[in-house]
């Protein structure tokens, strides 16, 4: 059971990593242009273009690391790191996703990210997805 949860969480993180990677290279899928994509996936007040490629690449790398660490935590990927280091890393990722998931419902975050369709997607998809990822990773750590 834990291997299935870890694999699904890792797969989800890997997909998110690839999305950020291609956005870093200037691909605007699923939108037609950078402005529309920025309003869909970033949502900051007045945003008119995607964040810099370096930011997208950094997020892609962190998500890729999280995907790999999740597999390492349950023995599905080889590691030379001590178990406590891997579990600490996965715990940190779980905390970050948990915080991001909760932020989706806070008035302060809403004030910073009011652009549509991001604001709606954040409450209906991004926030809940972050909370599910956080819960899955927390389960992986404590299982």
Supply Rg.
Answer: 16 Å
Instruction: Give the mean pLDDT.
Output: 98
Major sheet attributes: none
Structural class: mainly alpha
Order of helices and strands: HHHHHH
Low-confidence stretches: none
Summarize the structure.
This protein has 143 residues and is an all-alpha fold. It is 73% helix and 0% strand.
What order do the helices and strands come in, and which of them pair?
Layout: H1 2-24, H2 34-41, H3 53-73, H4 83-103, H5 107-112, H6 118-142
Kindly describe this structure.
The chain has 143 residues and is mainly α. The chain has one domain. The chain has six helices and no strands. It has helices at 2-24, 34-41, 53-73, 83-103, 107-112, 118-142. Helix 1 crosses helix 6 (118-142) and helix 4 (83-103) runs antiparallel to helix 6 (118-142).
């Amino acid at each position: 059971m834990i291997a299935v949860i870890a694999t699904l969480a890792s797969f989800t993180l890997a997909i998110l990593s690839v999305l950020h990677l291609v956005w870093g290279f200037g691909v605007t899928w699923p939108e037609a242009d950078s402005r529309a994509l920025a309003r869909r996936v970033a949502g900051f007040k007045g945003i008119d273009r995607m964040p810099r490629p370096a930011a997208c690449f950094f997020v892609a790398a962190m998500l890729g690391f999280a995907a790999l660490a999740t597999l390492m935590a349950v023995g599905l990927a080889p590691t030379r790191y001590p178990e406590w280091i891997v579990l600490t890393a996965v715990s940190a990722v779980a905390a970050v996703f948990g915080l991001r998931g909760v932020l989706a419902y806070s008035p302060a975050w809403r004030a910073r990210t009011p652009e549509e369709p991001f604001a709606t997607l954040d409450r209906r998809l991004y926030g809940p997805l972050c909370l599910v990822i956080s819960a899955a990773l927390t389960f992986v750590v404590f299982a």
